[in-house]
Structures are given as structure tokens and as C-alpha cells.
User: Fold these one by one.
Assistant:
Number 1:
Amino acid sequence: MKLTGINALYGGLLVAACLPLFATADTRTSTDLLKLDSSIDAARNALQKAQQSQQTMAQKLQSVATRIDRIGKKLHRIAQDQKHHKARLHEHQQQRQTLQQDYQHNTMLLQKQIRAAYFSGKQEFIKLLFNQDNPATLGRILTYYDYYHRARLGRMQQITGKISKIAHLERQIEQDQQQLQGLARTYQAEHLALKTNQQEQSQLLGKINKEIQSRDQELAKLLDQKKHLENVLSILQNETLNLQLDRENGKPFANYKGSLDWPAQGKVLKRYGSARIGGLKWQGVVIGATEGQEVHAVGAGRIAFTDWLPGYGMVIIVDHGQDYLSLYGYNQALLRNKGDWVDKGETIAVIGNSGGLGKPGLYFEIRHRTQALNPARWLRPNEPGQRQAQTQ
């Protein structure tokens, strides 16, 4: 993490403290000059220690965020697998129910056939044979009994087939249930690891905030974070492929202004243009959401950036072509890789608190040639949970 703002702050204080001393240096003894040198060395050492502490904690914070991202990816995959297996289990159970109903129906019909055959008896069949003077009538009766016999055999074969299918489905259902139990155990273990890392993340953020003793230091930190993000965006601007999107119908991203779906549902906590500190303003919106909630791409494009940024946490940026970018920060996990193509509405990340907001949420920006735009003018109005955004 660059600490140019903090360097400037400490440097200014150091110069201000030393000017009166230099002004009267000719009247001071060598002992006073030695004390002055000692004070300067002490101030320089204090500055270096502060810088090293900030850098160490920033590196630790990035490391923890990366671990959380890895666990979050795994948890999302497990959740998707659970959803798939539950759907398959439900489908197998429905098939079993249908087969059991069909089995019961065929069994009932077979029972009726057996009772009818029993009551007619063999004697009736022989009697019919000897009492027929007309060979044609006899032929019809024989055909009837042959058909009756074959129908009964066919019904028995159907019942046997149903029993076999039901037994097969029972085995599949048992396998599905075992897989779901295994996934549940894995999910619980990974979720525990996630909570452990989140606690470490929270403690690191607490230490970083504790070291910030003044508004000037807070402003310096925010300026450093802003500069870091702008450097990344400048690099991406130079690397842009000028994509021709949307891939579905060829419309450029600008044509969707005012009709884009929100990347996540939730209450708008910070609005574009609202004040932060020292004249700084929010360049995007912060949406309060539930941890683990999915983040969706507002438009089709190609993933241009996936990494941790100081102050923004785990960030994913989508290049929509014509120099338009959308940025999604504070994520718990990034589900797409740099270079991947994504469609409008596709899941690209999972809501988290990697940016130090203090609660789960999503930081969202829209940029054009590195210039931040008001997302409320691009996103669809009157969305559930997003009514505050209309006023911007």
C-alpha cells in the first residue's frame, strides 16, 4: 500500500517543528544542535515505524481477504452443488411416486383379471369348446382367451418392470441423500474457516483504524486508496479492447442507460456524490446486502480486473466496450477470472465486507474513460430496496 498522504503529513509536521529552530541556529550551542539532530532522528524513526506498521497490516489484510475469497468460492460451489442435488433428489422422489401409483394401478387390474379367470374356470372354457357348432364362433372364443392370457402376462411384465425401476430410484435417492449429507458437512467446515478468517480481518481493520488518530490521517488514507484505484483504471483504459457489446443483440452499453438492472438487491447506504471527508465524495453507491448474496453483472462484457484493492477489498471490473467499465467492490469472493466473458445478469461475485464497511455490502461504480458516472442514472428506477437511488 502506498502511503504518500501519510508521508506528506508527517513531513509537513517535521518541517513545521524544525523551522523555528533553524531560524535561531546561529545562537544555539553544539549541544542544542545535537539535541535537534536527535529529535529529527526520533521523528524519522517514528515515521518509518508507522509506515512499516501500515504496510505490514495492509499486506496481512490482503492475505486474509485472499483466503476469504478462496473459501467463499468453495462455499458458493458447494451451495450450487447442494441446489443441484436437492433438485435431482426431488425429481427422483417424484418419479418414484409416479411409478408407485402406476404399480398400484397395474396390480389392481391384474387382480381383477385373475379373479375373472378364476370364476370363469377351466370347465367353462371346455364347455364353450364342446358346445360350439360354428367353427367361426369357436375361433373367436379361442382368440379371445388367447388375448386375455397375453394381456395378463403383459400386465405382470409391466408390474415387474415398475418394481425394478422403483428399486433403482430408491438407490439413486439414497445416493443423493448421502451426497447432500457430505456436502453439508463440507459446507459447515468451510463456513467455520470463513468465520475464523473474517474475525482476523475484522481485528486487522480495527488496528488500522485505531492507528488513524486524526481527520488528516483519515483523509490521507482515502486519498491513497483513491489514487491506487485511479492508477488501476488508467492501466485498464490503455488496455481496453473497445469491445462491441451487448453480444446478444449488438447494442452498445450506452443504449442501456436508465434500464440496467441493479447488481444486487438491498438498501442504498451511500449515494453517489455524497460527502465523505475533506471534500472527498463517493464516486459510486454502497448497497447494504446480505453476506453470501450474489452479485450480478449489469451488462455483458469481459472481466478486466480481479484483485484486492486497499479500501475497496476484493474487486471485479467488467469492460463493456466503448470505454465503459463497471466496478464491484467489498466482495467476499470473486467467481469469475480475468479474461472471462460474462452476460448481462450473470453471477460474478458474492457479497462480503472485504472493504472495511463494517457490515456486508457492495460498492458499485460505472466509469467512462476513468470518469465516474452517477449509477442512479444508469440503473432501472423503482427497483425493490433501491428507491433512494432515484433522487440522485
Number 2:
Amino acid sequence: MELGLAGKRALVTGSTAGIGFALAKGLAAEGADVVLTGRKQDTVEAALRRLKDTVPEAKVTGIAADCATAAGAETVFAQVPELDVLVNNLGIYGRKAAFEITDDEWQHLFETNALLPGPTHTETTDKLRAERAKSQGITLTEIEAAFFRDFRPTSLIRRFTTADEVAALGVYLCSEAASGTSGAAMRVDGGVVNQIM
């Protein structure tokens, strides 16, 4: 499928690791000129090297700035005044009974979360699971099996999604092919979310 992203300028915030990095990699593979951001120069440089190793033809640059602050956002805007694609790699989550969530909280969730990933393998989540497995004296495979047996029995795939699987939907949503897809929070959860989103 031709996604129409070649030559587009794309900014992906928080993109030195995890889902943000996978999104940047997917956009670069489609021919977009990608700008990565991260809070530290060394992590930005490491991400640039990883991306170029994975997608040798990638047109990618990086900016060290904390996009969650006004000063960081100004740094990015000064260096990237015009874009075709913005991926605000920000997501929020909180556990609360559906009927206890106020209208303002619902609106905030819908405005913030463009994608709704379920349990996903990323560097951070894998590290947390490894620590939990070690503390319980079991393997990572056992941790994952127990998680889906005890906490996500509705999962259709019965495993954690990969950052690349989440990014595939994000890249599609950035493309011309998704011009008719709007006004919705899209789930990439393997069938596990058992609440209204």
C-alpha cells in the first residue's frame, strides 16, 4: 500500500526508545524525513545511530529537548518551524471505574491518547517485568503467562504486543491512506481492553 509519506517532514516526540522510536523507524522506512526528540543529547545520538543502522536510507535528525516543558517545546519549534506530520508520543493512563470518571477526565483522555496500546514490549516495560520475575524467582515466560491468565484473560493474542505492532497503526494514521479515519481513539491491544475507551 502506498502511504504517501515519502518526503514528508515528521516530528516524533519522545522517540529515543520504545513506541516512539518504533514510530520514527516506521515513518523513516516509508520515506519520511524524521526528527527525533529526547531529553538527553546522548540518548538522541544513540537513537539516531540505531535508526540509521535499521533503516540505512533514513533521513533523520535529532533534537535534545524535554517536550513536556514550555522551554523544550520552544527549542523544538525554533529548529522545526514547519511540519507535515506531528506524532505527539504522549499517553496517559489511570485506573478508575467508568462511572467515576468525570466528563472533563473523559475529554482529557480522548484528547491525549491518539493511540491506545495494551500491554507492550518496550525497553522500560521489559526491564520492569525482568525485575518482577527475579523478585518472584520465576522466568519472564512465566510472568507473561501469569499476566494474561490472571489479568488479561480476554486477550486474543495471549502475549504482549511489540512496539513495532503499535507503530504500524501509528504510521498508517500519519499517512494519506488514513484520510477518512478521524475522531477516534484507536486500540492496539491484542483484544485485552475490557472497558469503554
